[in-house]
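Q: Here's a chain of 573 amino acids. Please give me its 3D structure as tokens.
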Amino acid sequence: MSVLTIGDLTLDHILTHGIEQEPVYDDLAHLDYSHTRFRLNVRASINSELLPAGQGGVDNTSPSTIEKSIRHLLAQPRQDLTFTVGGSDSNHTLFNVKAPDVKNGPFPRVHSVVKIAGTETFIIDYSVEFNLVECPDAGDVLQQIASHRWRTNVRINHNFYSTLTTVGRVSLHVDAEFDNLSADSCKSLVLPPIPYGFRRDGIDWVVQEDGLALQYTVIDQEVYLQAPAPATKWDGQYIESTVAPGGGVRLAECRVRLEGPKLSDKGALISTAVDLCVNKVLGPTGVFGKDVVLRGAAVTEHLADNVIEVMVKAQLVGDPARLKALPLNPVRFNTAIPGVPDIAPDPGTRGSAGMKQYAPGFASPCQDVLPLVTVLTGQLSEDAPPPGGTPPSISLVPVLPTDFNSLWVIPLDLGLYTTYLISMIWRHHDHIIQLPIADDQSPVAAVNIKLAQTTSKLFVEWVAEREGGKPKLPHPCLGDPTIVRSKMEIITDQIEPTGDGTQLKYRVSGKYEYNYQNRASKLVSAVPPTMDSSSLDPGIVGYAAEDFQFGILNAGLPGTTGGCEDLSEDFPD
């Protein structure tokens, strides 16, 4: 004789029609065993004489109340279920299900009255469905995660950066032992690690309505350089510029923006950004106070978010080698930034290269639970941080001194030019006078008469300003005995302290006037002391007749070059 107990109701006069058993696999790939679905089909006799009064809440005052009560009781889901065959002891118990089962059951499926015998007896067919995981070894402990499968989509943009989108589904078990666990407790076990050279841009979690599945989407974006810890996202610019001819005054400016996690230390972000900017401004070989002088700095804090911005501006020593090109040193560009991890290695065929068909993290509901990173690699790799962690990052070595004021000190033996400007004015006097003609009938109103040979004069005006040392002044001697200085005027401005009061600033200006014994035949530009003039090609600093273009001054006026003098005598090659 078989006995079926549902909740508090016991049916002990039953005929077993069958027990259906179906293994169920994971929802996504249909490869991993999840549990076994059972369906028990029985026929039972219900009679007021066979049911003790009030058993299981059955009202047995009449046949109609009996059938109604039993129908109600047998229709309730998630009730304990026991099914024994041939006896009442545990050795004869075929199923003993504690509600809820691993899929929130048991669930009643069929309750049909197939026959009414007389007025007291009802013959019913009843089916109940329940789900069990039966681990083969007695020592196995049922795990909450039934299965875990995922897929990875790879998108490569026009700059060959990959975007990895991982979509996964975790099927969960429900059991009395898991009352204090939820889908959230599984996140740290299934979250894929951040690939090296990538930034995690977002995670979407979806908990299924019945709580039996957890779906996630993870987006990882490949980056040129990873953000330095503790930042999760960063951006920056490095600029070199000049405000004086020839690169006499060169400026370097670095701007860095760091975004950090919600609970990270904003002070650590500021310190990291300052170190990044200072390292970049110094360059590969720079030293503060020798090659670089700090000119300004700013820190911006975003109050509504964990974001900071840092700007550092410095002045660089003039480089004579920059004359024939832009006033910058290419060596200072495209260099590694201390504190920022190296560029991720190119996987070759990009995106999916090296991706194997890994075994799922939870292939059996009876196995031990391991984090996903361990399943993928077999061991925790240095290149693969724990799930949910941050990418590897190089530790920063602070470069700032304890005394911040020393960054602004300009040594006396250095001196940086803030202004050096020389203007040279050549003046040719042809000694031609205009004589008017009184005759109204004359075809011209005046005649031009040359009284003497053409003479030349040179006027030089210059300004030199330097901080931390006296500027080098242009010597008035031109080294040509045919060019005689006729006047000299020099103005020395008062010495003033620099803005921070640590050094002195010098400013000197002057005017020189020269008379040429012969007609001037060389037109050149001056070269400031911030450049090496000894190795310059004369063609770079000098001008010849061919450098003068007809049509610039007489645009819109009638005339041809036929009436113009030949300038080759004045300005030969």
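Q: Can you summarize the key feature?
A: Helices lie at 63-74, 187-190, 266-282, 372-377, 538-541.
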